[in-house]
Design brief:
With 288 residues, the protein is mostly beta strands. The chain has a domain at 77-277. 12% of the residues lie in helices and 34% in strands. The chain has 3 helices and 9 strands. The chain has a 9-stranded antiparallel beta sheet, with helices on one face. A hairpin with a 2-residue loop joins strand 3 and strand 4. It is globular, with a radius of gyration of 33 Å. The chain starts with 46 loop residues before the first helix and ends in an 11-residue tail after the last strand.
């Protein structure tokens, strides 16, 4: 009878270059061997070898992460993610002194009396719903009550460098209108916003589509369609008369082109044009 032998020989080379004796995987069939008197000395790995190995492992990890497709969380993971948004609380307090009893301050959160004033306590929340949408909300608490400043969803994976936002939006007219009080470099609203758009700037329920052009410098085109009624658009468009939306002509349309040039490590240039168009309540058919 022909006997079948199955053995696996493992040859191990240690750091010092010494060879280990082959060993049979089947310990039961292997003859007993005497233990070696002493283990061969090994040479520690050089620091440059360890650094090279670490770099190679990091490169493999990044390559594997880049090749792995992102998947939307499902089940329990999706619920836990939705319950764990990024939260921020921002407090704005101003100290002001006026020589008149009723200063002509135009901003909705501007200090309007001498002494300390609570301009706003803003709660900002944001969360990635999935790999395709992100949700943002900005709620403002003031002595007058609670105000929904912004709440919108943003797409994250549209083709051709497109991005869509929908909800209650501060329109991207100019540079300051789309920003919040805590990010201003001054304590009150700039005059041009209060003069043309009112105390809360220009905002409304609507949708915004933007595209980043494939050019050697930063060029972004923005187009927004929103309600021309409400506190954010009343002064510029409908005034005190809210006719509602009976057709596309009753909406406000905002367009902007934004460009950015890096002139050096410490200097840059931002240039753009903005326009807003909508119905005017002074007479039927009038537009601003």
């Amino acid at each position: 009878m022909r006997a079948r032998w199955a053995a696996l020989a493992l040859v191990l080379l240690d750091a010092g270059g010494a060879w280990a004796a082959p060993a049979s995987r089947n310990a039961a069939s292997a003859p007993a061997a005497s233990a070696p008197a002493s283990r061969p000395a090994t040479r520690p790995a050089a620091p440059e070898d360890l650094a090279e190995l670490q770099r190679a492992m990091e490169a493999d990890r990044k390559a594997a992460a880049a090749a792995r497709p992102e998947r939307a969380p499902t089940g329990v993971a999706s619920v836990l993610q939705s319950l764990n948004p990024d939260l921020s609380l921002i407090l704005d307090i101003a100290l002001a002194g006026f020589s008149e009893e009723s200063p002509p301050m135009m901003g909705g959160h501007d200090p309007k009396a001498s002494g300390f004033s609570l301009q706003a306590l803003e709660l900002a929340a944001s969360a990635s719903v999935d790999p395709y949408f992100r949700f943002n909300a900005n709620l403002v608490f003031s002595p007058e009550g609670v105000e929904v400043e912004e709440v919108y969803a943003t797409t994250l994976a549209l083709p051709w460098n497109l991005q869509l936002r929908a909800g209650q939006l501060l329109t991207r007219f100019g540079r300051i209108n789309a920003t919040h009080l805590h990010s201003w470099t001054f304590s009150d609203q700039v005059l041009v916003l209060g003069k043309f758009f009112g105390g809360e700037g220009n905002r409304g329920l609507g949708a915004e589509l933007s595209v980043l052009l494939p050019l050697p410098w930063f060029v972004e085109l923005v187009a927004t369609a929103s309600n021309a009624a409400g506190e954010g658009a009343a002064r510029s468009f409908l005034g005190d008369s809210d006719r509602g939306v009976k057709g596309p002509g009753d909406l406000q349309y905002t367009a902007a082109v934004k460009q950015f040039f890096a002139l050096g490590d410490d200097w840059s240039l931002a240039w753009g044009l903005s326009g807003a168009f909508g119905p005017n309540a002074t007479a039927a058919g009038n537009r601003t």
